[in-house]
Amino acid sequence: MNVTQDLSFLSLITNAHLIVQLIMALLFVISLTSWTYIFSKMFAVRSARRLTIEFEKTFWAGGNLHALHQNAGKDRANSGPLARIFEAGMGEFIKSKAAYTSARETMDHGAILDGARRAMRAAFQREMDVLESHLAFLASVGSVSPYIGLLGTVWGIMNAFRGLANVQQATLAAVAPGIAEALIATAIGLFAAIPAVVAYNRFSHDIDRLAIRFESFVEEFSNILQRQSR
């Protein structure tokens, strides 16, 4: 008996059970969304690292802090995360000193410094929140997608074996197409999960390194402000 069946990838998807097709469609949407976040996060992290390096070079070149503060405040959207942290701390420092001067009160240098440090910590948290956005989604895709694909595989294999009940002679050729259709769901689930896991680990590492640089800058700049407030 010569059995000819189309086992191409597209044919296996179109001939799969409706539930399996829905699971495949869900995995495709998840994978597409995941790749969108991967590319957008890749560009965002690269831009943040480049702008951070540029600002560090400018800051440690020994320029005027007030001029640097004005430049950072002109275009905050494109100035970079570290520049925005600096702008928040320097702005609070200037405002606090101006408030004591206008009130003709004795400056509380500790309060001024604490205010600037709190402003920088708040800006730091905002920047980290932006950098870490969508990482939880990538982590979820990496952990859940294989199980969603496995659900489609189990359902497809179950239907393949149920179809054998109507066949007088069960052969491998009879059950192979159904099993192949079911296994595609697992393959699509892995295709969605593997890049998400790799991207999540890579972005988490890069963002952690940026966070260390931000925190180090906050402490170093606080020391500079402490010396200037005396």
Automatic annotation (TrEMBL):
For this record, an example GO cellular component is: plasma membrane
Coiled-coil residue spans: none
Q: What is this protein called?
A: Tol-Pal system protein TolQ
Family annotation (Pfam families) = MotA_ExbB (PF01618)
The organism's superkingdom is given as Bacteria
List the subcellular locations.
Cell inner membrane; Cell membrane
Keywords, comma-separated and alphabetical: Cell cycle, Cell division, Cell inner membrane, Cell membrane, Membrane, Transmembrane, Transmembrane helix
| An annotated GO BP | bacteriocin transport
